[in-house]
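Problem: given the chain below (375 residues), write out its structure.
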Amino acid sequence: MLRLIRTGEAVTRADIGRVTGLSRPAVSLRVTELLDRRLIVEDNEGPSTGGRPPTRLAFNAAGGVVLVASLGASRAQIAVCDLAAGELARADLAVDVEEGPDVVLPLVMRTWEELLGDRPASLIRAVGLGVPATVEFAARRTESARIMASWTGVAIPPIIAERFPVPVFLDNDVNVIAIGEHRAVYAGQADDLLFIKVSTRIGSGVIAGGEILRGALGAAGEIGHIPVRDGGGVLCRCGNTDCLDSVASATAILRRLRSRGYEVKTLADVVALVRGGDAETMTVIRDAARMLGEVVASAVNILNPAVVVLGGDVAETFQPLVSGVREVVYRRSTALSTRNLRIERSRLGPGAGIVGCAHMILDHVLSPEAVDSPP
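Solution.
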């Protein structure tokens, strides 16, 4: 019934009765329950066809809030959102996620408290985080051995629930970004999507049939740890050599330029070199694009997405990288898998993680099972 009201398929009690076949008393009882939980509101301003206009029902996005955080390796987007995934307050912070949960999580929780302001704690419906680690979603626990040791095996929900006693959801950071891009940009037009985040590290999120694909233990999408050819024997964090993450990420680009005598501290320095037409810098970017494109081409052959979205600092900063990936994918993937394939840059940018986190939470908070459970 809530879904019918949220989507506008049924906006009066009579509509609900016709669509569901429920009796008037049954409809009235369920509507009253939804009103009591502040999930819907009544609107008496509906159009009339003669006589007293029917009372219209509308989803109450202001009936609660969710706390969300999308953590990257070096930055975090933290927000309070309404029940329609709309941002009410937001903070973007520099963080070093490798300082570990004992440092990062208290910072996130303090920021939520600041963003909540005068809003009562009773409005908080749930909390959701995206973290740059492999996450066993069902167990709501990070599983990232050899990648970020301080986060390995951490059960984050109990830590958060001590301060905010509501359901807490956890997923990989690129998964929530993929959810955000899909829901906000491609819903209804592309239900098979591959999101590639090219930033300090490289990862991917896979939307298949409109749903995020997590795999048996949450390890789906670890595209950054696929070895590439001609990588130069670079040792990766995971212990293997020439992983995509170690040769084509922002970290790898900066390392290669420094090894060639360039004094570059951030991507902004690399941007200045590209804008100045520096040939060697462009060669490094093109090499990264080639290696990334080869791995993405294999993923396209396996997954056959309708769209590949490239996001993260590197993809959003360097158009030549996006063009290079596009060229390699169309050349190396099968003709059928690329017939209608689109390869695009992220449209949401850093905000995608917040949108995705909010939808991840709301899919559960507003599910029939959650709505039917005792308050």
